[in-house]
Amino acid sequence: PIAIDNLHKAQTLAQRSGDASLLLAVESSLGNAYALTGRDAEAERLLRSSIDRARTLREAETAAQALNNLGNLFALQGRFADAAGSYREAIAVANGAGNKRIAIRASTNLGRALTDAGRFGEAIALLSVLGEEIRAQAPSHEKAYGLIALGRLYTRLLASGIVPVAEMSRRAYTALNDALVVADAIQDARARSYALGYLGELYEQGARYDEALQFAQRAIFAAQQADAPEVLYRWQWQ
Hints:
This protein is mainly α. 84% of the residues lie in helices and 0% in strands. Helix 4 (60-76) runs parallel beside helix 6 and helix 10 runs antiparallel to helix 11 (209-226).
């Protein structure tokens, strides 16, 4: 892939420059690229190396990002316990460095891993805290997508039986509506489309079909505004 080729070139340039921090950042990104393209063994080797060297260099934010990426690799492999461990480390390191953005991203991924592992009680407890942390952030693309992810996780947990369905639905609706407000504030049509579309899915699950159709139509219009065909087809199908 072009991205990996470019990162290999960047790696060579960073090695020539002698800038250890730059080389570390490039190799961490390369490890993530390997993970996304299915080169798992190379990804794990490079990400673990990046984590060790980032700690040696006291590059806490790079270490946190690499730990989050390693967790993503484990999650893709279905190794949810290992993924949860990496995400927890990423959260701790990111918070120690004062980087709330990485901490929130890793917390969202942790919630997903716990849900995938069937650890619903832990996931629900985590999401309650995570929701407060996301809402405390200034309006941004990251905040909009964080709230969308929160709403999607609550939707997945509807059938867990731990929290009454009505209450879990309310949490999902609230998160997605909050995401819609943020998307409107920053004029992000793509995020608006996702928020509207997933709200439509929630209404459909609640057998409120007229409202579900209205949200799907609004999601389609937003996807057209964003020139996002990969989103558009989803809502057209819905």
